[in-house]
Specification:
The protein has helices at 15-27, 51-61, 74-88, 107-116, 137-154, 171-176, 191-201, 225-243, 250-285, 289-312, 322-351, 365-389, and strands at residues 3-11, 35-44, 65-70, 93-96, 121-125, 132-133, 167-169, 206-210, 212-213, 355-358, 361-364. By secondary structure, the protein is an alpha/beta fold. It starts with a strand and ends in a 6-residue tail after the last helix. The protein binds guanosine-5'-diphosphate and magnesium ion. It is a multi-pass membrane protein. The chain crosses the membrane at residues 260-278, 290-307, 328-348, 368-388.
């Protein structure tokens, strides 16, 4: 009798890709003659492109195609997909692939053969000989950076591919994984490195196999690179601290701080913009410092407003419209400006003018006065914007 491999394909608006991906997956059967493939499409409930129609047709044509609807998040799609397979298909091997045509599907054959060799976890990898990453430069930097960071901070050193879903494992390994600890319900793709980490803790015997990763066929990427990077960093630090014996729920706490981190980043960019225009207005337009500061701060305020509105607080539903928010943001920022001026005034009255020598260079006290204003002004801006400008309205 043939063995069964279940292949979970998580989908979120993949109408244009799913039929082709399913077809390619079944094509691999000829290279693994002792296996029969079943496919589980785990589709996000937010999919709105009519993928159900295509899936229905696939199911009608092939009874080894299954379709389930799952709550949002890649991790949910993968974990629920495997649980469905275990409950309904009695698989000998659990596998998973992206559904958008990015993964060259012959990796499936290598993954399954690796499990046949006695490994409990096979990892498709762009970093081993024969593997390729054909993404944009920015995405390649992310992939490489995440790999290095995870290897150094979290370990193990010998798993090089941490941010791809192409994997296969045994049901025994899957059942040993601590789902209570695994952040599988997150909206980002943190499941990818986190699953490896938990698998290693569960005693996985692993091996990487070559994977070729191309650009997707149709549709768009759901990867939120900032959020994902943030999660990878805090998850790895959390894992390292736990392995050193510090039982601080760092990862969980950091979820709450995410908006604050984004807001602070915008603040930092705004400060740079402020400084840049300040210098340009003084040096090229011969404005007085005070006038220059007035204009540069207003430019920074608008810059920060745009970034916060379309990034930091992007998903906040508010009752105010864009112009009202901009107005409130300006009034709020004026508060920050007054706080800043008062702090500088106070420090100046207390410590006066002077210099300190740092690395042989004289640095004026007033530089420190300026920097001292940044944290309190940021705190003010965040609190007031959090409570007023982007106030969350309960429906
Ligand atoms: N069920 C489900 N699938 C998802 C979700 N996010 C991404 N996917 C699927 O996971 C795979 C990889 O996602 P993709 O957006 O292509 O990310 P990228 O390859 O890193 O750009 C694709 O098949 C997506 O449809 C999600 O929230 N839920
Ligand atoms: Mg993709």
């Amino acid at each position: 009798m043939k063995k069964i491999v279940s292949v979970v394909l998580p989908t979120y608006n993949e109408k244009g890709n799913i039929a082709k991906t399913v077809e390619k997956v079944f094509e691999q059967e000829k290279n693994i003659p002792n296996f029969e493939i079943s496919v589980v499409i785990a589709d996000d409930i937010r999919s709105s492109d009519g993928i159900e129609q295509v899936a229905k047709e696939l199911i009608r044509k092939n009874r080894r195609v299954h379709f389930i609807k799952v709550e949002p998040g890649l991790g949910v799609g993968l974990i629920k997909g495997h649980q469905y397979a275990l409950d309904n298909l009695h698989p000998d091997v659990l596998a998973q692939l992206d559904a958008d045509g990015q993964v060259v599907p012959d990796v499936l054959v290598r993954l399954i053969k690796t499990i046949e060799e006695g490994y409990s976890l096979a990892i498709g990898s762009r970093f081993v000989s024969g593997g390729k990453n054909q993404l944009s430069f920015v995405r390649r930097i992310f992939t490489y950076g995440a790999s290095i960071f995870c290897r150094l901070v979290m370990g193990p050193w010998d798993i090089r591919e941490v941010t791809n879903s192409a994997r296969a494992f045994t049901p025994a390994l899957f059942n040993k994984i601590n789902l209570g600890r695994l952040p599988w319900q997150e909206r980002t793709f943190i499941i990818q490195p986190a699953f490896l980490h938990e698998a290693v803790l569960a005693g996985a015997k692993y091996k990487e196999v070559p994977l070729i990763f191309k650009n997707r066929l149709e549709g768009y990427s759901k990867n939120k690179v900032f959020n994902y990077t943030y999660d990878v960093i805090v998850y790895c630090l959390d894992a390292r601290m736990h392995s050193l014996g510090f039982n601080i729920p760092f990862y969980r706490l950091s979820r709450r701080a995410k908006t604050l981190v984004k807001f602070s980043l915008v603040g930092a960019i705004g400060t740079l913009v402020d400084f840049l225009f300040y210098k340009v207005f003084i040096n090229f337009l011969n404005l007085t410092p005070a006038t220059a500061k007035g204009f540069s701060t207003e430019i920074a305020i608008i810059n920060n407003f745009i970034l916060n509105n379309y990034w930091t607080f992007r998903y906040r539903k508010t009752k105010t419209n864009l112009w009202q928010k901009l107005g409130i943001f300006n009034v709020v920022s004026l508060g920050g400006l007054i706080i800043g001026v008062l702090i500088v005034k106070y420090l100046h009255l207390t410590y006066g003018d002077g210099f300190v020598i740092i690395f042989g260079r004289p640095i004026a006290y007033n530089n420190f006065y300026f920097f001292a204003t940044i944290p309190p002004v940021m705190l003010w801006n965040f609190t007031v914007n959090h409570l007023i400008t982007w106030r969350r309205e309960e429906n």
